Amino acid sequence: MSNVTALRRPAPAAGSLQTFAGDDDRRRLTPAAVKAVLRLVEAWGSGNAEGAALLGVSESTWDRIKAGKWEGVLSQDQLTRASALIGVFKGLHLLFADDMADRWPSLPNRGPVFDRMSPVQAMIAGGIPRMLETRQYIDALRGGF
User: Fold this and answer.
1) DSSP-derived 3-state class of residue 16
2) Which of 13, 31, 40, 117 could be joined to 89 by an S-S link, Cβ 3.0–4.6 Å?
3) SS (H, E, C) the chain
4) What is the C-alpha separation between 72 and 52, in angstroms, rounded?
5) What does the radius of gyration of the chain's CA atoms come to, in whole angstroms?
6) Which residues of the chain have pLDDT under 50?
């Protein structure tokens, strides 16, 4: 058994928690995740560099993704990033009934998670942990926690 084969985890059983670890799951989830992240980055008015940094890909890969010329599979970390971003997007649209839902991520924020940066800047600087904190922060604002 090769080292790569030994490191692959089986797909989660029905009813178990999603981990994005299984190759089959990542292949299945990648197209929807990419489509959603492209849409939310556009809705937020973020540029290519920000979109690439949020998803955790190079700018050249981001350009191929945007052009529909990328046939790759997102990694476990990239799917985690996409999931967190989608959760932030959804939470904002539940919290705000107007265009503030799409403007909020680009506005400077004095909340404890953001250190006076915009949420997008904070999520880029803090990576996955800050993305998850941002999602939890939005959920808390909506009364979900």
Assistant:
1) coil
2) 40
3) CCHHHHHCCCCCCCCCCCCCCCHHHHHHHHHHHHHHHHHHHHHCCCCHHHHHHHHCCCHHHHHHHHCCCCCCCCCHHHHHHHHHHHHHHHHHHHHCCCCHHHHHHHCCCCCCCCCCCCHHHHHHHHHHHHHHHHHHHHHHHCCCC
4) 15
5) 16
6) 1-7, 9, 12
Task: Name the one residue in this structure whose structure tokens are 């299984």.
Answer: 22
Report the distance separating Cα 55 and Cα 41, nearest Å. Answer: 10
pTM: predicted TM-score of the whole model, two decimal places: 0.84
pLDDT in tens, 69-105: 999 999 999 999 999 999 999 999 999 989 999 999 9
Other C-beta atoms closer than 10 Å to the C-beta of 71 total 9
Q: Tokens at residue 22, please? A: 């299984």
Q: How many whole angstroms separate alpha carbon 60 and alpha carbon 70?
A: 10
Q: What angle do CA 9, 12, 15 make, to 5 degrees?
A: 165
* Token output for 145: 């926690």
